[in-house]
Amino acid sequence: MMRKNLVSFLLATALIMQIIVVIIPATPAYADGWVVTTLGSGFNGPCGVAVDSSGNIYVADSNNYAIKRMDASGNNITTLGSGFTYPLGITVDSSRNIYVGEPTKDAIKRMDASGNNITTLGSGFDHPESIAVDSSGNIYVADTYNNVIKRMDANGNNITELGSGFWMPFGVTVDDSGNIYVADTYNNVIKRMDASGNNITTLGSGIEYPWGVAVDSSGNIYVADHGNNAIKRMDASGNNITTLASGFNGPRAVAVDSSGNIYVADEWNHAIKKISWATTVNARALDSLVTAPGTGATPSTPAINQAQYTGTVAWYESDGITAVTGNFAESTVYAAKVTLSAKAGYTFTGVAPNSFTYIGATSVTNAADSGTVTITFPATADITPPTVTGVTPDGAGVSISGNIAITFSEAMDNTAAGAVYLSDDGGTTYDPALTGGSWSAGDTVYTIPYSGLSYSTAYTVKIQGFEDVAGHTMATDSTHSFTTCVEPIIPSVLPGTLTFDKGSTASFTIALGQGASMATSADITVANGGIASVSQTQVTTPDTITVTGLSVGTTDITVVFNNTAATTATVSVTVQAVPPTWPSGSSLTASGVSRTNAALTWTAAQDITAVTGYKLYQDGVEIDMVAGDVSNHTVTGLSSATSYTFQVQAGNADGQWTTNGPTVTVQTQSSGGGSRNTPSKPTYTADVKVDGADNTLTITVNMDTSSAAVNVDTQQGNTISGGGNVAITMPSIPGVSSYSLGIPGACLTTPGGGSLTFKTDTGSITIPADMLAGISGAEGRNAAITIGQGDKSGLPDSVKAAIGDRPLIQLSLTLEGKQTDWNNPDSPVTISISYTPTAAELANPESIVIWYIDGSGNLVCIPNGHYDPATGTVTFSATHFSFYAVSYNPVSFNDVGSTDWYYKAVSFIAARGITTGTGSGTFSPDLVLTRADFLVMLMKAYGIAPDTNPADNFSDAGSTYYTGYLAAAKRLGISAGVGNNLYAPGKEITRQEMFTLLYNALKALNKLPAADSGKTLENFIDQGDVAIWATEAMTLLVKSGMVSGSDSKLDPTGGSTRAQMAQVLYNLLGR
Questions:
Q1: Which of 115, 659, 745, 1046 has the most crowded CB, counting CB atoms within 10 A?
Q2: Is the separation of the CB atoms in 926 and 898 below 8 Å?
Q3: More reliable by pLDDT, 20 or 702
Q4: Would you state the pLDDT for residue 640?
Q5: What local confidence, expressed as pLDDT, does residue 714 receive?
Q6: pLDDT beyond 70 at 4
Q7: Contact call for residues 525 and 496 (beta carbons, < 8 A)
Q8: pLDDT tens digit string along 638-692?
């Protein structure tokens, strides 16, 4: 009795201490994907919980001195039995008999499913806390104050002590194999022993006062970690410990059902809690749920009821505001707003923005963690076939050669096959289809040339088979007629005089005549072939001759008709001179303005042949002339403090001079100094597309700083923050080397918004709407993002040599004009640099890389940079602004040949320093990958630096090439190791370990893929081989298409070679 009182005192003291610690519970926190709900009500300090095969829940409602049962939803609460005093432990067998631990009476009791036939089982217990029953009906008791586990048969006889070394065991359970699990409370561990009480193994670590323990059919172990107010799970080996939920207030007992739901007796919250897996909604293909709009159809608004969610559908016009009334109209854009609500066990948390799909939709948008989806559809069908509304020429007197112009009733498909035929027998037979047609006027007018027709002949034009943009073919052929003109009796040409500009063309028609004067052919010669040329030098039928002006002057074209009279005709040709032209945006600028001088610089003019000279004018008076290859001149002899206007005009060898050259006005310095230079600046505009709609913005050019700037207004900025996409394209501006984009900072602080693309001839950058999120004060200030050509002159010689003549760009950010460092790992920008590789580089484009140049001039490779031959750019993503350079870094290995399937992948990762091989110039492609090598390559691939002086690391991290990477992986939550603070770096890695580490890394970087391949684990015949700890990772990577398997298998326990790993990284980074 003295021993019992001492133990009671120690227990009470410990409980008091714990009550002091947890009397103010922490805010509930749940592991990703788990949700906690409260079941039932009216409990008072419940200390025991159990669940039967039907999901009914049994509660030891300790301070109410009662045993209660409720259904799986927490309803229909029933009190079972009577006469209990402070019942703590409870379990239920396959026949739904209920077992109760009554420690204050040192008793174990059993009653039937109705709460009747209460029987006391066994004897000799001292404060029995917990009970378990195996499939044979044997009863296991945590005999707490006796520090033992006891087993007795179904009648309470044959009591046997199992195991030893326990200290205040509060919890016990048994698995299907008869293994016994003990919450060895005061030893702060979970222990497992076989059915005989032997082979005791300690499982897990980091547990404080475990009071309850349960095990599921897969061998996973669940612990009520009373001291940490948490529920934890570990695998059958005691590894991969995960906190499923925390924030409880004295979790006393835990149970698990066949579906993996976990039940907790949350004693001091006076509640029973259920922890269940809430799967992120992944059924995101909406094609079968929403019927696309069709012309004349009634909008479909079904009540959506799927396995993962319910929802409603509403229809709006393209503005997303005006509700649709009546049926869908023709050629109209409509949007469906789908509002989804997750069902029990599912959540929209974790749903990436714009991750729902609808095949054929123009766009499908949703915010992050949202089930509200907007589907915008293409315009409804044009159901009316196209018709011909006009044809020229028509009537009589039509030339025997020319063009037929056909006007259609609507825009046509300019790629579809249609045909135009001519007939000279009233449409009985047609010549082969005409060729060489072209479209104009928004693809509504089709013009096609014809020639070689007969004079005085009626022709039928047949138009057949043209399609509109909706794919509708002309319902019937369209026919039209005209009659050609009468052929002259005497062979002749018309017109007899041609006057046109140098570099352009004109034409004349040859008639061979009729009757006795008719010629069999005609020969065409040009008197001065340096002035003009002709398309043909002989014709045998009436035809049209094209004349091209080559140089300024006059010449004759002689046509000699081969008839009895040897008739001749002459066409007089005059080719006129034309002045040079000034390109769009041409300018004249002044610099170095002093009291007497001004240095002028201008844009080069253009000419058909060549610009031969420039004339300079001062206040309208010519003051000088320079050669055509000169574009600058210094004016001297000016007066101080005087305003002058200068203009430049360009001339050519034909003596033609422009009259609209650019101007500049300057103010010379006064004797006291100071000057003004106010050039007449050319106007430049940037093209703007806002969700596909075109617009323009005015560009401000500053030639003093060689810069150009454009500002996004608040309306366009709000489009970005509201989820829309804006693209701004800057023209190439002579003399400009940097381009800036201004935008209100508030428009770039919105998570889940749209994007802004800024395109220049230096490079382009795509910016997410939350780029400036987290930067203090950004919302109230104006931002400017600048992309410009970098200055190589200050770089170390080794860096300059490595870059060579390849592009170097600089990216920078200012807020209210003040230079601001930007670094946001959660919102990377995408950058593209125009680049034309050499022949050697094109043969090995995987070795074209992007280097970031740090503040010390060191080169740091950006692993995701890659050359895109389709766009002619090197593209990469970055999370900070700096200098970035294109370079070429080929790396080869003795054991990797150019014909090997993995050659490109190995070249790619080696060029980026992701791998340096295995030594002596080898890569060892067939070597099976170890856990350390995989982790190092993975972290290098995603730019995750190793910890240099790690304060915490795995105990087997050693001091080698992977040591710092292991520490960083542990710190970032990429790996928790294999248990007991071990990573097992030399162990061959399995595929499910690879993909779990990849998933954890992408999650830590906020780069989890949002794509949906439509596949799930159930598509693979070996999905049952996926370990529970790898299920979450494998599910998402399969769904996203990053893991595709082979022959309907995932092979989760198989290994991977170094070559296969290289290909995985190449697929991830090189696309």
A1: 745
A2: no
A3: 702
A4: 84
A5: 65
A6: no
A7: no
A8: 888 888 989 999 999 888 888 888 988 888 887 544 444 444 456 777 888 876 6
CATH class for the domain made up of 34-277: mainly beta
Which structure tokens are listed for 1031? Answer: 């299920």
The CATH code that applies to domain 497-576 is: 2.60.40.1080
pLDDT for the residue numbered 18: 35
Under a CB-based contact definition with an 8 Å cutoff, are residues 934 and 942 in contact?
no
Question: What pLDDT was estimated at residue 692?
Answer: 64
Q: How many CA atoms lie within 13 A of 123 on its CB side?
A: 1
349 class by beta-carbon count within 10 Å (0-12 exposed, 13-18 middle, 19+ buried): middle
- Where helices occur in 539-614 by DSSP H, the ranges are none
Contact 581, 606 (CB under 8 A): yes
Question: Rounded to an integer, what distance in angstroms lies between the CA atom of residue 348 and that of residue 368?
Answer: 8
Q: Across all residues in the chain, what is the average pLDDT?
A: 86
CA-nearest of 776, 768, 758, 760 to 815 is 776
Q: N- to C-terminal Cα distance for the chain?
A: 76
pLDDT tens-place string over residues 551-568: 989 999 999 999 988 889
CA pair distance 749, 827, nearest whole angstrom: 10
Mean pLDDT of 103-109: 91
Nearest to 134 by CA among 92, 77, 166, 75: 92
Cα dihedral value 1059, 1061, 1063, 1069, nearest 10: -140
State pLDDT tens for residues 901-937. Answer: 889 989 998 888 888 888 888 988 888 888 988 999 8
Q: Residues near 856 by Cβ (< 8 Å), separated by ≥ 6?
A: none
* Alpha-carbon dihedral sign for residues 982, 988, 990, 993: positive
pTM assigned to the model: 0.41
Domain spans of the chain, in order of start: 34-277, 280-380, 388-484, 497-576, 588-665, 685-888, 902-1070
HSE, side-chain direction, 13 A CA sphere, residue 264: 33
CATH 1.20.1050 fits 685-888, yes or no: no
Reduced to 3 states, what is the DSSP secondary structure of residue 186?
A: helix
Q: What angle do CA 380, 386, 387 make, to 5 degrees?
A: 150
Q: Backbone phi, then psi, for 577, in 5-degree steps?
A: -75, 145
DSSP-assigned beta bridge partners for residue 439:
446
The contacts found for 164-167 with CB under 8 angstroms, 24 or more apart, are: 164/197, 164/200, 165/200, 166/191
